[in-house]
C-alpha cells in the first residue's frame, strides 16, 4: 500500500503544471537539460572573468568593511592619497626642470614670439588652485585603474615577451587617438554652452605657465581622466607603455604652456614644428581661443581650417 501511495504521489507531481520532475517521470519522455557546446563554453569563459572579478571586488570589500562605508572605501582612498602625492611631486619636478632644459636647446629664445613683458612668467594662484584640485580627479581615476587591474579587469599586459615593435606601436597609436579625440572635445568645450562649465578655468591666464598645463575645471578634469581610464579597459596595453605615455603627456603639456620665447629655433625645429605642437602654437590658442585646438599634432587644425596662420 505504501508503495502504491508513493507511485500515485509521483504521478500527481508529474502532471502538475510547471513541475520540475517531468524529466524523471515514469512513462514520459525525459527532456534533458541542454548543455552548452564547446563554442558556447568558450564565449562564456570570455565574459565571465570580468563578472567574477566585479563580484569578487564587491565581496572582498564587503567582507572587509563589515557594513561600514568608511571601511568599504578605505582601499580606494588610500590609493588616491598616495597617487595625489605622486602627482604633486610630478608637477613640481616637471615645472622646475623642463623650462631650463628647453632653454638649453640650440637656438632657444631666438624666436622672439613672446609678448612684451612676459619673458619671465609667474604662475597665478588661480592656476595653482585648479591644478591641485584637478590632480585629485586624476588620482582617483588612477586608484580605480589600480584596483581594477588587481582583479584582472583591465587590458593591461604585465608579462614580458611581447614583440619589440609592439610598445612603439601602442605608444604612437594612443597618442594619435588622444590627439584626435581631444581636438573634437576641445572645440566642443569652446562652444558657448560648454565653455563656462568645462574650459573657462584653463583660459584664465592669457599668458600660461607650467601650472596652467594642469589647471582644469572639474568637468574637464573628469573628461581628461576618463580617457586614460577608458584606454586601459578597452585597449590591450603594456604597463611600461602606459607609464611612458603618462610621462610624455605630462611633459608635453608643460612644454606647450611655456613662454614661446623659449621655443627652439635650431635647424630642423621649424620642419618638426610644422607638425608638432609647441609653445608658439598653443600660446596663440590662449591669446586667440578660436584657433589652434590640437594637442600634440597640427594636422587636425590644418585639415579643419582652424590653424592660426602665424603659428
Brief overview, please?
This protein is 60% helix and 1% strand.
Give an overview in words.
The chain has 311 residues and is mainly α. It has a domain of 178 residues. The chain contains eleven helices and two strands; from the N terminus they run H-H-H-H-E-H-H-H-E-H-H-H-H. It has a two-stranded parallel sheet with strand order 1-2. Helix 4 runs parallel beside helix 7. The chain is globular and about 55 Å long. The N and C termini lie far apart (101 Å).
Which ranges are low-confidence, i.e. pLDDT below 50, for 5 or more consecutive residues?
13-24, 26-31, 38-54, 111-119, 265-271
The secondary structure category is mainly alpha
- Determine the mean pLDDT: 79
User: Helix coverage percent of residues?
Assistant: 55-70%
Number of beta strands: 2
Radius of gyration: 29 Å
- The portion of residues forming beta strands comes to under 5%
The separation of the N and C termini measures 101 Å
Sheet with the most strands: spatial strand order: 1-2
Order of secondary-structure elements: HHHHEHHHEHHHH
Number of helices: 11
Shape: globular
Describe the biggest sheet?
2 strands, parallel
List the helices and strands and how they pair.
Blueprint: H1 2-15, H2 38-65, H3 69-103, H4 125-150, E1 156-157, H5 166-189, H6 195-198, H7 218-234, E2 237-238, H8 239-256, H9 269-273, H10 279-287, H11 299-304
Parallel strand pairs: 1-2
Helix pairs in contact: 2-3, 3-4, 3-8, 4-7, 5-8
Q: Which key features would you list for this structure?
A:
311 residues; globular; 2 strands; mainly alpha; two-stranded parallel sheet
Amino acid at each position: 500500500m505504501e508503495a502504491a501511495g508513493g507511485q500515485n504521489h509521483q504521478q500527481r507531481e508529474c502532471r502538475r503544471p510547471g513541475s520540475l520532475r517531468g524529466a524523471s517521470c515514469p512513462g514520459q519522455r525525459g527532456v534533458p537539460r541542454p548543455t552548452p557546446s564547446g563554442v558556447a563554453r568558450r564565449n562564456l569563459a570570455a565574459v565571465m572573468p570580468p563578472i567574477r572579478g566585479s563580484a569578487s571586488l564587491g565581496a572582498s570589500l564587503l567582507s572587509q568593511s563589515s557594513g561600514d562605508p568608511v571601511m568599504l572605501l578605505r582601499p580606494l582612498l588610500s590609493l588616491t592619497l598616495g597617487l595625489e602625492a605622486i602627482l604633486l611631486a610630478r608637477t613640481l619636478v616637471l615645472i622646475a626642470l623642463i623650462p631650463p632644459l628647453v632653454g638649453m636647446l640650440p637656438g632657444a629664445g631666438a624666436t622672439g614670439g613672446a609678448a612684451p613683458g612676459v619673458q619671465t612668467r609667474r604662475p597665478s594662484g588661480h592656476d595653482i588652485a585648479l591644478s591641485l584640485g584637478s590632480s585629485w580627479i586624476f588620482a582617483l581615476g588612477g586608484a580605480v585603474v589600480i584596483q581594477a587591474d588587481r582583479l584582472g579587469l583591465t587590458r593591461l599586459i604585465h608579462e614580458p615577451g611581447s614583440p619589440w615593435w609592439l610598445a612603439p606601436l601602442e605608444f604612437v597609436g594612443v597618442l594619435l587617438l588622444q590627439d584626435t579625440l581631444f581636438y573634437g572635445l576641445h572645440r566642443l568645450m569652446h562652444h558657448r554652452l560648454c565653455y563656462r562649465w568645462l574650459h573657462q578655468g584653463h583660459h584664465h591666464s592669457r599668458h600660461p605657465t607650467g601650472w596652467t598645463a594642469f589647471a582644469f575645471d572639474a568637468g574637464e578634469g573628469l573628461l581628461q581622466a576618463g580617457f586614460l581610464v577608458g584606454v586601459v579597459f578597452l585597449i590591450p596595453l603594456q604597463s611600461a607603455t602606459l607609464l611612458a605615455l603618462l610621462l610624455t603627456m605630462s611633459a608635453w603639456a608643460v612644454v606647450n604652456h611655456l613662454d614661446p620665447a623659449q621655443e627652439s629655433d635650431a635647424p630642423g625645429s621649424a620642419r618638426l614644428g610644422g607638425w608638432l605642437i609647441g609653445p608658439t602654437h598653443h600660446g596663440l590658442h590662449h591669446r586667440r581661443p578660436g584657433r589652434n585646438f590640437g594637442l600634440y599634432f597640427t594636422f587636425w587644425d590644418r585639415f579643419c581650417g582652424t590653424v592660426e596662420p602665424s603659428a
